[in-house]
Amino acid sequence: MTLSESQLSQLKETIYQLALEENFQDMRVSDINTSGYFEKFKSWLNNGYHGEMSFLERNQELRQHPDSLQAGTCRVLSFRYNYLPTNAQFSAPLKNPDMANISRYALGRDYHKLIRKKLSNIVRQAANQLNLEQFIEARVLVDSAPVLETAFAEKSGLGWKGKHSLIINESGGSWFFLGEIFINQPIQVDAPVEDKCGSCTACISLCPTDAIIDGKTVDARRCISYLTIENKGPIPEDIRTSLGNRVYGCDDCQLACPWNRYSSVSEDKDFYPRHGLESSELKDLWLWDENMFLSNFEGSPVRRIGYQNWLRNLAVAIGNTGNPDYIELLEKKLPDANAMVTEHILWAIKTLGEKHALNNTRSKLLSKTKKLINCVVNMHPRDA
């Protein structure tokens, strides 16, 4: 049964108010037409920009037609939830090569279950308050199904898709999670907003690996977030030095975006940094064994990459420090490493050794040059 206009309006307002009570910053509504968006997604796949994320190649019918994913769906409700912690350090980890730089969203608890629970509470309470349980069929989604979530967020006016492919909100920047509710009632849709990136190319220029290849297109095969999280194999050797000390994800494109000056911090303590991750040193994280990794990252999104890939990422970061003092620490981990991680450890050892040798050579050359200059000065004091 389709609700009356009055009931639909009341349902939308009730969901919106409940969303605010659950600490969401906004909720907008779109229809389920994916025309234009789906074709761009298919083109992105056909170009191989998704790397080894084969799951994106499956269930195309569900992505194109949301009502195939949830029968009866005619509207998508898109929600925005800020996650930037109050004590987020933006520049300190990147400026100190001995520190581990972890993407801000992963410093606290895993958002998937938290956001999904909040959205489930919202739709259940709305139906209950309005006595509409028998008329509402809905499904909550938070990165849990084949959905073009940025398409619906943009269609609904929650924000516009930036050149880095993330949704940007004029008053909230891009430091937020997205969540959706697929619903069977034709709630009034909201209008899209203007794309205000203009001629700005800050995110493209600052990307360490040149992964943003053109407007709103990211080549995941070069993206540090993909390489350190979704990638299950080795990190391409020609890209390793560009990773710097980024051991889980990358925020550089968001750090570059001028719209993030308007971002608001989150008051949700679930997203506050845990275990001092915002200021952890590489050597300390490297000393964790697998049990410590599993224990310290319980309830964290980092846990899902597994201990071996965690070591892989750390090995690359340590190799980029240029500090030969790490070589002994790297060698001690070889018995715990699988073949893929061993290759990265050996790369790091070789890299540090070569940098050490180069620095010694430069130091000797500098010393010889200084001595030569002193000799010349002593021989020709007036010319000096």
What overall geometry do the principal axes of the alpha carbons give?
A: elongated
Helical residues, percent:
40-55%
Strand content: 5-15%
Structural class: alpha+beta
What is the spatial order of strands in the main beta sheet?
A: 1-2-7-4
* Unreliable residue stretches: 361-366
Give the overall pLDDT as a whole number.
91
> Helical region count?
16
- Rg measurement, Å: 25 Å
Distance between the termini: 96 Å
Major sheet characteristics: 4 strands, antiparallel
Task: Count every beta strand, where a strand is a DSSP E run of 2 or more residues.
Answer: 10
Pattern of helices and strands: HEHHHEHEHEHEEEHEEHHEHHHHHH
SSE map:
Layout: H1 5-21, E1 26-30, H2 37-46, H3 60-64, H4 66-69, E2 75-82, H5 92-95, E3 101-102, H6 111-129, E4 138-141, H7 149-156, E5 160-161, E6 167-168, E7 176-183, H8 202-206, E8 212-214, E9 217-218, H9 224-230, H10 237-240, E10 246-248, H11 252-256, H12 282-286, H13 290-296, H14 307-319, H15 327-332, H16 339-379
Parallel strand pairs: 3-10
Antiparallel strand pairs: 1-2, 2-7, 4-7, 5-6, 8-9
